[in-house]
Write a structure and sequence with these properties.
Oligomer: heterodimer
Number of helices of chain A: 12
Number of strands of chain B: 20
Shape of chain A: globular
Largest sheet of chain A: none
Shape of chain B: elongated
Radius of gyration of chain B: 24 Å
Order of helices and strands of chain A: HHHHHHHHHHHH
Helix content of chain A: over 70%
Number of helices of chain B: 8
Largest sheet of chain B: 6 strands, mixed
Chain lengths: ~270, ~350
Protein backbone atom coordinates (compact mmCIF):
# COMPACT_ATOMS: atom_id res chain seq x y z
CA UNK A 1 0.00 0.00 0.00
CA UNK A 2 1.03 3.52 -0.66
CA UNK A 3 1.76 5.13 2.69
CA UNK A 4 1.69 8.89 2.54
CA UNK A 5 1.84 11.50 5.24
CA UNK A 6 -1.59 13.02 5.68
CA UNK A 7 -1.80 16.73 4.97
CA UNK A 8 -2.90 19.28 7.54
CA UNK A 9 -6.25 19.75 5.79
CA UNK A 10 -7.03 16.09 5.94
CA UNK A 11 -6.37 16.12 9.63
CA UNK A 12 -8.52 19.18 10.23
CA UNK A 13 -11.35 17.62 8.25
CA UNK A 14 -11.08 14.39 10.23
CA UNK A 15 -11.03 16.37 13.47
CA UNK A 16 -14.20 18.26 12.56
CA UNK A 17 -16.02 15.08 11.56
CA UNK A 18 -15.21 13.37 14.84
CA UNK A 19 -16.10 16.52 16.78
CA UNK A 20 -19.54 16.72 15.16
CA UNK A 21 -20.12 13.04 15.80
CA UNK A 22 -18.93 12.80 19.36
CA UNK A 23 -19.23 16.30 20.90
CA UNK A 24 -22.93 15.86 21.84
CA UNK A 25 -22.13 12.57 23.50
CA UNK A 26 -19.22 14.11 25.33
CA UNK A 27 -21.37 16.98 26.57
CA UNK A 28 -24.05 14.64 27.90
CA UNK A 29 -21.47 12.54 29.68
CA UNK A 30 -19.84 15.63 31.18
CA UNK A 31 -23.12 17.10 32.42
CA UNK A 32 -24.18 13.83 33.98
CA UNK A 33 -21.42 14.50 36.52
CA UNK A 34 -22.46 18.13 37.00
CA UNK A 35 -23.53 19.32 40.43
CA UNK A 36 -26.00 21.87 39.12
CA UNK A 37 -29.42 20.95 37.78
CA UNK A 38 -29.11 23.38 34.90
CA UNK A 39 -27.22 22.12 31.88
CA UNK A 40 -25.60 25.48 31.27
CA UNK A 41 -22.57 25.74 33.45
CA UNK A 42 -20.37 23.12 35.02
CA UNK A 43 -20.38 23.93 38.72
CA UNK A 44 -18.58 20.90 40.12
CA UNK A 45 -18.16 17.14 39.94
CA UNK A 46 -20.85 15.07 41.60
CA UNK A 47 -22.49 11.66 41.45
CA UNK A 48 -25.76 12.93 42.83
CA UNK A 49 -27.72 12.26 39.63
CA UNK A 50 -26.53 8.70 39.55
CA UNK A 51 -27.70 8.24 43.13
CA UNK A 52 -31.09 9.66 42.23
CA UNK A 53 -31.28 7.46 39.19
CA UNK A 54 -30.65 4.29 41.17
CA UNK A 55 -33.18 5.34 43.77
CA UNK A 56 -35.85 5.75 41.06
CA UNK A 57 -37.99 2.61 41.25
CA UNK A 58 -39.77 3.12 37.95
CA UNK A 59 -36.45 3.57 36.23
CA UNK A 60 -34.97 0.46 37.81
CA UNK A 61 -38.03 -1.55 36.84
CA UNK A 62 -37.67 -0.37 33.25
CA UNK A 63 -34.02 -1.39 33.31
CA UNK A 64 -34.92 -4.84 34.60
CA UNK A 65 -37.57 -5.20 31.88
CA UNK A 66 -35.05 -4.22 29.24
CA UNK A 67 -32.50 -6.70 30.52
CA UNK A 68 -35.00 -9.57 30.64
CA UNK A 69 -36.28 -8.68 27.19
CA UNK A 70 -32.75 -8.34 25.80
CA UNK A 71 -31.56 -11.66 27.16
CA UNK A 72 -34.66 -13.62 26.18
CA UNK A 73 -34.94 -12.22 22.66
CA UNK A 74 -31.22 -12.77 22.24
CA UNK A 75 -31.43 -16.43 23.25
CA UNK A 76 -34.49 -17.06 21.15
CA UNK A 77 -33.06 -15.40 18.07
CA UNK A 78 -29.71 -17.15 18.58
CA UNK A 79 -31.46 -20.49 18.24
CA UNK A 80 -33.66 -19.42 15.32
CA UNK A 81 -30.87 -17.53 13.53
CA UNK A 82 -28.31 -20.34 13.86
CA UNK A 83 -30.70 -23.03 12.67
CA UNK A 84 -31.79 -20.74 9.85
CA UNK A 85 -28.23 -20.12 8.71
CA UNK A 86 -27.38 -23.82 8.84
CA UNK A 87 -30.57 -24.66 6.96
CA UNK A 88 -29.93 -22.03 4.31
CA UNK A 89 -26.38 -23.25 3.79
CA UNK A 90 -27.66 -26.75 3.07
CA UNK A 91 -30.37 -25.92 0.57
CA UNK A 92 -29.56 -26.25 -3.09
CA UNK A 93 -32.79 -24.59 -4.20
CA UNK A 94 -32.77 -22.06 -6.95
CA UNK A 95 -34.73 -19.77 -4.62
CA UNK A 96 -31.94 -19.81 -2.04
CA UNK A 97 -30.79 -16.26 -2.78
CA UNK A 98 -34.34 -15.00 -2.42
CA UNK A 99 -34.76 -16.94 0.85
CA UNK A 100 -31.64 -15.32 2.26
CA UNK A 101 -32.87 -11.92 1.26
CA UNK A 102 -36.26 -12.50 2.86
CA UNK A 103 -34.57 -13.72 6.03
CA UNK A 104 -32.71 -10.47 6.59
CA UNK A 105 -35.49 -8.21 5.39
CA UNK A 106 -36.50 -7.08 8.93
CA UNK A 107 -33.23 -5.11 8.94
CA UNK A 108 -34.30 -3.16 5.87
CA UNK A 109 -37.95 -2.53 6.73
CA UNK A 110 -38.31 0.88 8.40
CA UNK A 111 -38.74 0.35 12.13
CA UNK A 112 -41.83 2.49 12.32
CA UNK A 113 -43.56 0.30 9.75
CA UNK A 114 -42.47 -2.91 11.44
CA UNK A 115 -43.78 -1.50 14.72
CA UNK A 116 -47.14 -0.52 13.23
CA UNK A 117 -47.53 -3.82 11.44
CA UNK A 118 -46.76 -5.80 14.56
CA UNK A 119 -49.19 -3.75 16.62
CA UNK A 120 -51.98 -4.29 14.11
CA UNK A 121 -51.20 -7.98 13.85
CA UNK A 122 -51.08 -8.62 17.59
CA UNK A 123 -54.31 -6.69 17.96
CA UNK A 124 -55.95 -8.91 15.36
CA UNK A 125 -54.71 -11.98 17.24
CA UNK A 126 -56.12 -10.52 20.49
CA UNK A 127 -52.68 -10.98 22.01
CA UNK A 128 -52.39 -8.93 25.23
CA UNK A 129 -49.69 -6.29 24.80
CA UNK A 130 -46.84 -6.82 27.22
CA UNK A 131 -43.67 -8.84 27.60
CA UNK A 132 -44.79 -11.54 25.16
CA UNK A 133 -45.50 -9.14 22.31
CA UNK A 134 -42.25 -7.29 23.01
CA UNK A 135 -40.36 -10.56 22.98
CA UNK A 136 -41.82 -11.60 19.64
CA UNK A 137 -41.15 -8.18 18.14
CA UNK A 138 -37.56 -7.97 19.35
CA UNK A 139 -36.84 -11.54 18.25
CA UNK A 140 -38.02 -10.64 14.76
CA UNK A 141 -35.47 -7.89 14.32
CA UNK A 142 -32.72 -9.70 16.27
CA UNK A 143 -32.71 -12.88 14.17
CA UNK A 144 -31.08 -11.30 11.07
CA UNK A 145 -28.03 -10.13 13.02
CA UNK A 146 -27.28 -13.68 14.14
CA UNK A 147 -28.25 -15.20 10.83
CA UNK A 148 -25.83 -12.98 8.91
CA UNK A 149 -22.93 -13.66 11.25
CA UNK A 150 -23.44 -17.42 11.36
CA UNK A 151 -23.98 -17.65 7.62
CA UNK A 152 -20.71 -15.85 6.96
CA UNK A 153 -18.89 -18.19 9.33
CA UNK A 154 -20.46 -21.27 7.75
CA UNK A 155 -19.40 -20.15 4.30
CA UNK A 156 -15.82 -19.91 5.53
CA UNK A 157 -15.85 -23.45 6.93
CA UNK A 158 -14.33 -26.41 5.13
CA UNK A 159 -17.34 -28.38 3.79
CA UNK A 160 -15.39 -31.59 4.22
CA UNK A 161 -15.43 -31.21 8.02
CA UNK A 162 -19.03 -32.37 8.23
CA UNK A 163 -18.32 -35.18 5.79
CA UNK A 164 -15.35 -36.21 7.91
CA UNK A 165 -17.61 -36.40 10.96
CA UNK A 166 -20.17 -38.51 9.12
CA UNK A 167 -17.38 -40.69 7.78
CA UNK A 168 -16.15 -41.24 11.33
CA UNK A 169 -19.56 -42.58 12.33
CA UNK A 170 -21.49 -39.49 13.43
CA UNK A 171 -25.14 -39.24 12.46
CA UNK A 172 -26.63 -35.88 11.40
CA UNK A 173 -27.41 -34.76 14.98
CA UNK A 174 -24.01 -35.68 16.39
CA UNK A 175 -22.32 -34.01 13.44
CA UNK A 176 -24.19 -30.80 14.22
CA UNK A 177 -23.54 -30.97 17.95
CA UNK A 178 -19.90 -32.08 17.88
CA UNK A 179 -18.58 -30.32 14.79
CA UNK A 180 -20.79 -27.65 13.23
CA UNK A 181 -22.05 -25.94 16.38
CA UNK A 182 -18.67 -25.59 18.13
CA UNK A 183 -17.21 -24.17 14.94
CA UNK A 184 -19.92 -21.52 14.44
CA UNK A 185 -20.18 -20.68 18.16
CA UNK A 186 -17.99 -17.55 17.95
CA UNK A 187 -20.31 -16.21 15.27
CA UNK A 188 -23.39 -17.06 17.35
CA UNK A 189 -21.86 -15.15 20.26
CA UNK A 190 -20.86 -12.09 18.28
CA UNK A 191 -24.24 -12.00 16.54
CA UNK A 192 -25.99 -12.30 19.89
CA UNK A 193 -24.05 -9.40 21.36
CA UNK A 194 -25.02 -7.21 18.44
CA UNK A 195 -28.64 -8.34 18.74
CA UNK A 196 -28.59 -7.65 22.48
CA UNK A 197 -27.34 -4.13 21.89
CA UNK A 198 -30.11 -3.58 19.33
CA UNK A 199 -32.77 -4.88 21.68
CA UNK A 200 -31.49 -2.75 24.55
CA UNK A 201 -31.89 0.53 22.69
CA UNK A 202 -34.98 -0.02 20.59
CA UNK A 203 -37.71 2.58 21.04
CA UNK A 204 -39.60 2.76 17.81
CA UNK A 205 -40.82 -0.82 17.56
CA UNK A 206 -41.22 -1.27 21.32
CA UNK A 207 -43.39 1.78 21.71
CA UNK A 208 -46.04 0.24 19.44
CA UNK A 209 -46.18 -3.15 21.10
CA UNK A 210 -45.43 -2.62 24.80
CA UNK A 211 -48.18 -2.98 27.33
CA UNK A 212 -49.85 -0.06 29.07
CA UNK A 213 -48.02 -0.71 32.32
CA UNK A 214 -44.83 -2.14 30.88
CA UNK A 215 -41.93 0.10 30.08
CA UNK A 216 -38.45 -0.63 28.81
CA UNK A 217 -35.53 1.62 29.53
CA UNK A 218 -35.41 3.36 26.14
CA UNK A 219 -39.16 4.02 26.27
CA UNK A 220 -38.77 5.43 29.78
CA UNK A 221 -36.03 7.76 28.58
CA UNK A 222 -38.14 8.83 25.64
CA UNK A 223 -41.22 9.60 27.73
CA UNK A 224 -39.22 11.41 30.41
CA UNK A 225 -37.59 13.70 27.89
CA UNK A 226 -41.03 14.90 26.84
CA UNK A 227 -41.24 16.56 30.25
CA UNK A 228 -37.78 18.10 29.99
CA UNK A 229 -34.21 16.87 30.10
CA UNK A 230 -33.06 16.24 33.63
CA UNK A 231 -29.49 15.52 34.64
CA UNK A 232 -30.84 12.16 35.76
CA UNK A 233 -31.43 11.34 32.08
CA UNK A 234 -27.87 12.41 31.31
CA UNK A 235 -26.65 9.92 33.88
CA UNK A 236 -28.83 7.18 32.42
CA UNK A 237 -27.62 7.94 28.90
CA UNK A 238 -24.05 7.72 30.10
CA UNK A 239 -24.65 4.32 31.66
CA UNK A 240 -26.40 3.02 28.55
CA UNK A 241 -23.63 4.34 26.37
CA UNK A 242 -21.06 2.59 28.51
CA UNK A 243 -23.02 -0.65 28.26
CA UNK A 244 -23.30 -0.33 24.48
CA UNK A 245 -19.61 0.40 24.10
CA UNK A 246 -18.83 -2.62 26.25
CA UNK A 247 -21.10 -4.86 24.18
CA UNK A 248 -19.52 -3.54 21.01
CA UNK A 249 -16.04 -4.12 22.39
CA UNK A 250 -16.96 -7.68 23.29
CA UNK A 251 -18.39 -8.23 19.80
CA UNK A 252 -15.25 -6.81 18.23
CA UNK A 253 -13.08 -9.07 20.36
CA UNK A 254 -15.16 -12.10 19.37
CA UNK A 255 -14.69 -11.23 15.71
CA UNK A 256 -11.02 -10.59 16.10
CA UNK A 257 -10.34 -13.83 17.92
CA UNK A 258 -12.14 -15.95 15.34
CA UNK A 259 -10.69 -13.91 12.49
CA UNK A 260 -7.19 -14.57 13.80
CA UNK A 261 -7.88 -18.28 13.88
CA UNK A 262 -8.96 -18.32 10.25
CA UNK A 263 -5.71 -16.68 9.25
CA UNK A 264 -3.77 -19.43 10.99
CA UNK A 265 -5.68 -22.06 9.08
CA UNK A 266 -4.83 -20.39 5.81
CA UNK A 267 -1.17 -20.24 6.70
CA UNK A 268 -1.01 -23.98 7.26
CA UNK A 269 -2.61 -24.62 3.90
CA UNK B 1 -5.59 -63.25 -4.96
CA UNK B 2 -7.68 -63.11 -1.80
CA UNK B 3 -11.40 -62.45 -1.48
CA UNK B 4 -13.44 -59.83 -3.24
CA UNK B 5 -14.36 -57.10 -0.79
CA UNK B 6 -16.04 -54.45 -2.93
CA UNK B 7 -17.73 -54.91 -6.27
CA UNK B 8 -18.83 -51.98 -8.37
CA UNK B 9 -21.40 -53.05 -10.93
CA UNK B 10 -22.27 -50.84 -13.85
CA UNK B 11 -22.08 -47.63 -11.84
CA UNK B 12 -23.25 -44.46 -13.47
CA UNK B 13 -23.57 -40.99 -12.02
CA UNK B 14 -25.15 -37.89 -13.45
CA UNK B 15 -24.80 -34.41 -12.05
CA UNK B 16 -27.63 -32.38 -13.53
CA UNK B 17 -27.40 -33.28 -17.21
CA UNK B 18 -23.72 -34.15 -17.14
CA UNK B 19 -22.72 -37.80 -17.01
CA UNK B 20 -19.56 -38.19 -14.91
CA UNK B 21 -19.54 -41.99 -14.63
CA UNK B 22 -20.47 -44.13 -17.61
CA UNK B 23 -20.67 -47.68 -16.33
CA UNK B 24 -17.88 -48.53 -13.92
CA UNK B 25 -17.25 -52.23 -13.26
CA UNK B 26 -14.54 -52.95 -10.75
CA UNK B 27 -13.67 -55.66 -8.22
CA UNK B 28 -11.60 -54.63 -5.23
CA UNK B 29 -9.93 -57.31 -3.12
CA UNK B 30 -8.93 -57.64 0.52
CA UNK B 31 -5.51 -56.19 1.41
CA UNK B 32 -5.22 -54.61 -2.01
CA UNK B 33 -3.62 -51.23 -2.64
CA UNK B 34 -5.72 -50.03 -5.54
CA UNK B 35 -5.26 -46.67 -7.22
CA UNK B 36 -7.78 -44.81 -9.33
CA UNK B 37 -5.63 -42.79 -11.71
CA UNK B 38 -6.75 -40.24 -14.24
CA UNK B 39 -6.86 -36.56 -15.16
CA UNK B 40 -9.14 -34.21 -13.26
CA UNK B 41 -12.77 -34.68 -14.20
CA UNK B 42 -12.31 -38.33 -15.13
CA UNK B 43 -14.68 -39.54 -12.38
CA UNK B 44 -12.14 -41.00 -9.99
CA UNK B 45 -13.17 -38.84 -7.04
CA UNK B 46 -16.86 -39.44 -7.73
CA UNK B 47 -16.21 -43.19 -7.70
CA UNK B 48 -14.47 -42.82 -4.35
CA UNK B 49 -17.29 -40.71 -2.91
CA UNK B 50 -19.82 -43.33 -3.97
CA UNK B 51 -17.82 -46.01 -2.16
CA UNK B 52 -17.62 -43.75 0.92
CA UNK B 53 -21.35 -43.04 0.79
CA UNK B 54 -21.19 -39.29 0.18
CA UNK B 55 -22.84 -39.70 -3.22
CA UNK B 56 -25.48 -42.09 -4.42
CA UNK B 57 -24.97 -43.66 -7.83
CA UNK B 58 -27.56 -42.80 -10.48
CA UNK B 59 -27.66 -46.48 -11.38
CA UNK B 60 -25.67 -49.61 -10.67
CA UNK B 61 -24.68 -51.42 -7.51
CA UNK B 62 -22.04 -51.19 -4.82
CA UNK B 63 -21.51 -54.52 -3.09
CA UNK B 64 -19.56 -54.74 0.15
CA UNK B 65 -18.87 -58.34 1.14
CA UNK B 66 -21.64 -59.26 -1.26
CA UNK B 67 -24.21 -56.92 0.30
CA UNK B 68 -25.62 -53.96 -1.61
CA UNK B 69 -24.71 -50.74 0.27
CA UNK B 70 -25.26 -47.90 -2.18
CA UNK B 71 -28.13 -46.49 -0.08
CA UNK B 72 -26.33 -46.86 3.26
CA UNK B 73 -25.25 -43.53 4.86
CA UNK B 74 -21.49 -43.07 5.36
CA UNK B 75 -21.66 -43.37 9.14
CA UNK B 76 -22.94 -46.93 8.84
CA UNK B 77 -20.14 -48.17 6.57
CA UNK B 78 -16.95 -49.92 7.66
CA UNK B 79 -15.05 -47.53 5.46
CA UNK B 80 -13.08 -44.44 6.43
CA UNK B 81 -11.74 -41.60 4.36
CA UNK B 82 -8.62 -39.45 4.35
CA UNK B 83 -9.62 -36.18 2.73
CA UNK B 84 -7.60 -34.17 0.28
CA UNK B 85 -7.24 -31.20 2.61
CA UNK B 86 -7.23 -33.40 5.72
CA UNK B 87 -10.48 -31.92 7.14
CA UNK B 88 -9.20 -32.08 10.70
CA UNK B 89 -11.56 -30.57 13.28
CA UNK B 90 -9.94 -27.22 14.12
CA UNK B 91 -11.67 -26.99 17.50
CA UNK B 92 -10.18 -30.26 18.75
CA UNK B 93 -6.58 -31.13 19.58
CA UNK B 94 -4.68 -33.97 17.94
CA UNK B 95 -5.80 -36.66 20.39
CA UNK B 96 -9.47 -35.58 20.30
CA UNK B 97 -9.42 -35.54 16.51
CA UNK B 98 -8.14 -39.10 16.41
CA UNK B 99 -10.52 -40.20 19.17
CA UNK B 100 -13.57 -38.68 17.43
CA UNK B 101 -14.86 -41.96 16.01
CA UNK B 102 -14.09 -43.96 19.14
CA UNK B 103 -15.88 -41.42 21.34
CA UNK B 104 -18.97 -41.82 19.18
CA UNK B 105 -18.85 -45.56 19.73
CA UNK B 106 -18.60 -44.96 23.50
CA UNK B 107 -15.31 -46.82 23.77
CA UNK B 108 -13.78 -46.83 27.25
CA UNK B 109 -11.59 -43.76 27.92
CA UNK B 110 -8.49 -45.75 28.83
CA UNK B 111 -8.84 -47.90 25.72
CA UNK B 112 -9.19 -44.74 23.61
CA UNK B 113 -6.03 -43.25 25.11
CA UNK B 114 -4.14 -46.47 24.34
CA UNK B 115 -5.35 -46.66 20.77
CA UNK B 116 -4.63 -42.98 20.11
CA UNK B 117 -1.11 -43.47 21.42
CA UNK B 118 -0.58 -46.52 19.24
CA UNK B 119 -1.86 -44.69 16.16
CA UNK B 120 0.35 -41.66 16.80
CA UNK B 121 3.31 -43.99 17.11
CA UNK B 122 2.46 -45.65 13.82
CA UNK B 123 2.30 -42.34 11.94
CA UNK B 124 5.40 -41.04 13.68
CA UNK B 125 3.82 -38.34 15.83
CA UNK B 126 4.49 -39.63 19.34
CA UNK B 127 3.81 -37.08 22.04
CA UNK B 128 1.66 -34.86 19.81
CA UNK B 129 -1.59 -35.61 21.72
CA UNK B 130 -2.23 -32.14 23.09
CA UNK B 131 -1.08 -30.14 20.04
CA UNK B 132 -3.37 -27.73 18.23
CA UNK B 133 -4.06 -29.28 14.81
CA UNK B 134 -4.22 -25.90 13.06
CA UNK B 135 -0.60 -25.24 13.99
CA UNK B 136 0.79 -28.48 12.52
CA UNK B 137 2.57 -28.59 9.16
CA UNK B 138 0.79 -30.06 6.15
CA UNK B 139 2.63 -33.36 6.45
CA UNK B 140 1.82 -33.64 10.14
CA UNK B 141 -1.85 -32.82 9.55
CA UNK B 142 -1.96 -35.57 6.95
CA UNK B 143 -0.54 -38.05 9.41
CA UNK B 144 -3.17 -37.08 11.96
CA UNK B 145 -5.87 -37.51 9.31
CA UNK B 146 -4.57 -41.00 8.51
CA UNK B 147 -4.44 -41.90 12.20
CA UNK B 148 -7.97 -40.55 12.71
CA UNK B 149 -9.29 -42.77 9.93
CA UNK B 150 -7.32 -45.92 10.81
CA UNK B 151 -8.08 -45.87 14.53
CA UNK B 152 -11.64 -46.94 13.66
CA UNK B 153 -10.19 -50.15 12.21
CA UNK B 154 -12.07 -49.89 8.93
CA UNK B 155 -12.03 -52.68 6.36
CA UNK B 156 -11.23 -50.14 3.68
CA UNK B 157 -9.38 -46.83 3.76
CA UNK B 158 -10.19 -44.33 1.03
CA UNK B 159 -7.61 -41.69 0.23
CA UNK B 160 -8.55 -38.75 -1.99
CA UNK B 161 -5.34 -37.23 -3.37
CA UNK B 162 -4.01 -37.13 0.17
CA UNK B 163 -0.54 -35.94 -0.82
CA UNK B 164 -1.68 -33.30 -3.29
CA UNK B 165 -1.10 -30.36 -0.96
CA UNK B 166 2.37 -31.43 0.16
CA UNK B 167 5.68 -30.43 -1.39
CA UNK B 168 7.63 -32.88 -3.51
CA UNK B 169 10.08 -34.11 -0.90
CA UNK B 170 7.52 -34.82 1.84
CA UNK B 171 5.28 -36.40 -0.79
CA UNK B 172 7.95 -38.97 -1.70
CA UNK B 173 8.45 -39.81 1.95
CA UNK B 174 4.71 -40.09 2.61
CA UNK B 175 4.28 -42.40 -0.40
CA UNK B 176 6.73 -44.77 1.14
CA UNK B 177 5.14 -44.49 4.58
CA UNK B 178 1.61 -44.99 3.28
CA UNK B 179 2.64 -48.20 1.57
CA UNK B 180 4.31 -49.35 4.77
CA UNK B 181 1.24 -48.52 6.85
CA UNK B 182 -0.99 -50.38 4.40
CA UNK B 183 1.14 -53.50 4.69
CA UNK B 184 1.26 -53.13 8.46
CA UNK B 185 -2.48 -52.86 9.05
CA UNK B 186 -3.29 -55.24 6.22
CA UNK B 187 -6.46 -53.58 4.93
CA UNK B 188 -7.60 -52.41 1.52
CA UNK B 189 -6.50 -48.95 0.43
CA UNK B 190 -8.32 -47.21 -2.39
CA UNK B 191 -6.23 -44.29 -3.49
CA UNK B 192 -7.19 -41.51 -5.86
CA UNK B 193 -4.53 -39.52 -7.67
CA UNK B 194 -3.71 -37.82 -10.96
CA UNK B 195 -0.01 -38.37 -10.40
CA UNK B 196 1.10 -41.39 -12.42
CA UNK B 197 4.37 -41.76 -10.57
CA UNK B 198 2.53 -41.94 -7.25
CA UNK B 199 0.21 -44.59 -8.67
CA UNK B 200 3.03 -46.72 -10.06
CA UNK B 201 5.12 -46.49 -6.88
CA UNK B 202 2.53 -47.56 -4.34
CA UNK B 203 -0.16 -49.65 -5.97
CA UNK B 204 -0.83 -53.34 -6.38
CA UNK B 205 -3.44 -52.48 -8.95
CA UNK B 206 -3.83 -49.34 -11.02
CA UNK B 207 -7.16 -48.40 -12.56
CA UNK B 208 -6.69 -45.81 -15.28
CA UNK B 209 -9.81 -43.73 -15.85
CA UNK B 210 -10.81 -41.12 -18.38
CA UNK B 211 -14.09 -39.47 -19.20
CA UNK B 212 -16.07 -41.51 -16.68
CA UNK B 213 -14.82 -44.82 -18.02
CA UNK B 214 -12.17 -47.30 -17.01
CA UNK B 215 -9.42 -47.46 -19.63
CA UNK B 216 -7.31 -50.21 -18.15
CA UNK B 217 -6.95 -52.24 -14.97
CA UNK B 218 -3.64 -53.86 -14.20
CA UNK B 219 -0.46 -54.00 -12.16
CA UNK B 220 1.83 -50.97 -12.45
CA UNK B 221 4.19 -52.97 -14.66
CA UNK B 222 1.40 -54.07 -16.99
CA UNK B 223 -0.01 -50.59 -17.21
CA UNK B 224 3.36 -49.14 -18.08
CA UNK B 225 4.62 -51.84 -20.41
CA UNK B 226 1.41 -52.95 -22.04
CA UNK B 227 -0.83 -49.91 -22.28
CA UNK B 228 -4.09 -50.93 -23.87
CA UNK B 229 -4.71 -47.75 -25.78
CA UNK B 230 -3.33 -44.37 -26.72
CA UNK B 231 -4.84 -42.64 -23.69
CA UNK B 232 -3.12 -44.94 -21.20
CA UNK B 233 0.18 -44.80 -23.08
CA UNK B 234 0.07 -41.02 -23.11
CA UNK B 235 -1.03 -40.64 -19.53
CA UNK B 236 1.48 -43.07 -18.03
CA UNK B 237 5.00 -41.97 -18.81
CA UNK B 238 6.11 -40.46 -22.08
CA UNK B 239 5.50 -42.19 -25.35
CA UNK B 240 6.10 -42.13 -29.05
CA UNK B 241 2.79 -43.30 -30.49
CA UNK B 242 2.78 -44.41 -34.12
CA UNK B 243 -0.07 -45.67 -36.24
CA UNK B 244 0.58 -48.91 -38.04
CA UNK B 245 -0.80 -52.30 -39.04
CA UNK B 246 -0.33 -55.73 -37.56
CA UNK B 247 0.83 -57.80 -40.51
CA UNK B 248 0.53 -61.04 -38.57
CA UNK B 249 1.45 -62.35 -35.13
CA UNK B 250 4.88 -61.03 -34.07
CA UNK B 251 5.21 -58.76 -37.12
CA UNK B 252 4.16 -55.13 -37.20
CA UNK B 253 4.50 -52.48 -39.88
CA UNK B 254 4.89 -48.75 -39.32
CA UNK B 255 6.76 -45.84 -40.90
CA UNK B 256 7.05 -47.97 -44.06
CA UNK B 257 9.06 -50.78 -42.48
CA UNK B 258 8.23 -54.12 -40.93
CA UNK B 259 9.50 -54.89 -37.45
CA UNK B 260 9.55 -57.92 -35.24
CA UNK B 261 7.55 -57.61 -32.05
CA UNK B 262 6.31 -59.83 -29.22
CA UNK B 263 2.58 -59.13 -29.58
CA UNK B 264 0.05 -61.51 -31.05
CA UNK B 265 -3.67 -62.14 -31.12
CA UNK B 266 -4.59 -59.28 -33.45
CA UNK B 267 -6.32 -59.83 -36.74
CA UNK B 268 -4.13 -59.90 -39.82
CA UNK B 269 -3.58 -56.43 -41.25
CA UNK B 270 -5.54 -54.90 -38.35
CA UNK B 271 -4.93 -51.19 -37.88
CA UNK B 272 -3.20 -50.66 -34.55
CA UNK B 273 -1.09 -48.14 -32.69
CA UNK B 274 2.44 -48.76 -31.48
CA UNK B 275 4.09 -47.29 -28.38
CA UNK B 276 7.82 -46.82 -28.26
CA UNK B 277 8.95 -45.49 -24.87
CA UNK B 278 11.65 -42.78 -25.18
CA UNK B 279 13.93 -44.65 -22.80
CA UNK B 280 13.72 -47.82 -24.94
CA UNK B 281 15.10 -46.08 -28.02
CA UNK B 282 18.85 -46.03 -28.62
CA UNK B 283 20.87 -43.71 -30.81
CA UNK B 284 23.20 -45.72 -33.05
CA UNK B 285 25.19 -45.26 -36.24
CA UNK B 286 22.83 -44.85 -39.23
CA UNK B 287 24.06 -48.07 -40.85
CA UNK B 288 23.07 -50.20 -37.79
CA UNK B 289 19.70 -48.52 -37.40
CA UNK B 290 16.10 -49.53 -37.88
CA UNK B 291 15.10 -45.93 -38.56
CA UNK B 292 17.23 -42.94 -39.46
CA UNK B 293 16.84 -39.25 -38.86
CA UNK B 294 18.48 -35.99 -37.89
CA UNK B 295 18.93 -34.72 -34.34
CA UNK B 296 16.72 -31.71 -34.00
CA UNK B 297 17.16 -30.75 -30.40
CA UNK B 298 19.07 -32.03 -27.35
CA UNK B 299 18.11 -31.09 -23.81
CA UNK B 300 20.00 -32.01 -20.67
CA UNK B 301 17.57 -33.45 -18.07
CA UNK B 302 19.91 -34.41 -15.25
CA UNK B 303 20.23 -38.17 -15.45
CA UNK B 304 19.68 -38.33 -19.21
CA UNK B 305 19.50 -36.27 -22.38
CA UNK B 306 16.21 -35.83 -24.13
CA UNK B 307 16.89 -35.92 -27.84
CA UNK B 308 14.35 -35.19 -30.56
CA UNK B 309 15.15 -37.08 -33.75
CA UNK B 310 13.35 -36.05 -36.91
CA UNK B 311 12.76 -38.86 -39.36
CA UNK B 312 11.02 -38.55 -42.70
CA UNK B 313 7.58 -39.06 -41.17
CA UNK B 314 7.67 -37.85 -37.59
CA UNK B 315 9.73 -36.74 -34.61
CA UNK B 316 10.83 -39.38 -32.11
CA UNK B 317 11.58 -38.52 -28.53
CA UNK B 318 14.60 -40.40 -27.18
CA UNK B 319 15.92 -40.50 -23.62
CA UNK B 320 19.50 -41.65 -23.36
CA UNK B 321 22.63 -40.96 -21.38
CA UNK B 322 24.64 -40.48 -24.59
CA UNK B 323 25.01 -37.03 -26.05
CA UNK B 324 24.23 -36.29 -29.71
CA UNK B 325 24.65 -32.81 -31.09
CA UNK B 326 21.82 -31.24 -33.07
CA UNK B 327 22.13 -31.55 -36.85
CA UNK B 328 23.86 -34.92 -36.77
CA UNK B 329 22.46 -37.74 -38.84
CA UNK B 330 21.73 -40.65 -36.52
CA UNK B 331 19.99 -43.99 -36.45
CA UNK B 332 17.36 -45.24 -34.00
CA UNK B 333 17.37 -48.77 -32.68
CA UNK B 334 15.04 -50.80 -30.47
CA UNK B 335 14.42 -54.40 -29.52
CA UNK B 336 11.32 -56.43 -30.49
CA UNK B 337 10.08 -56.39 -26.86
CA UNK B 338 10.21 -52.57 -26.84
CA UNK B 339 7.49 -52.41 -29.46
CA UNK B 340 4.14 -52.28 -27.63
CA UNK B 341 1.16 -52.84 -29.88
CA UNK B 342 -2.20 -51.39 -28.77
CA UNK B 343 -5.73 -51.51 -30.07
CA UNK B 344 -6.57 -48.40 -32.01
CA UNK B 345 -8.82 -46.00 -30.13
CA UNK B 346 -11.89 -44.48 -31.59
CA UNK B 347 -11.85 -40.75 -32.06
CA UNK B 348 -12.01 -38.88 -28.76
Amino acid sequence: MNVRKSSIWERIYLGIMFLVMYLPIGVVIAFSFNESKLPVRFTGFSLVWYEKLFADHAMMEALLNSLILGVLSCLLSAVIGTLGAVGLSRTRWRSRGLMEYISILPLMIPEIILGMVLMAFFYMLRLPFGMLTLLIGHTIFCVPYILIEVKARLEGLDPFLEEAARDMGAGPLRTFRDVTLPLVMPAVLSGSLLAFAMSMDDVVISIFINGPRLSTLPIKVYTQIKTGVTPEINALCTIMLAATVLAFAAWYLCKKLTGGKEEDEQQVD
Amino acid sequence: MSNKLIELKDLTKNFDDQQVLRGINLDIYENEFLTLLGPSGCGKTTTLRIIAGFEEPSSGEVLFNGIEISKLPPYKREINTVFQKYALFPHLNVADNIAFGLNLKKVDKSVIAQKVERMLKMVGLEGFEKRDVTLLSGGQQQRVAIARALVNEPKVLLLDEPLGALDAKIRKQMQFELKKIQQEVGITFIYVTHDQEEALTMSDTVVVMNNGEIQQIGSPIDIYNEPENRFVANFIGESNIIEGVMVKDFLVEFDGFRFECVDKGFEEMEEIEVVLRPEDLDIVAPEDAKLTGVVQNTTFKGVHYEILVKTDLRIYKVQTTDYAEPGRKVGLSFEPEDVHVMYKMGAY
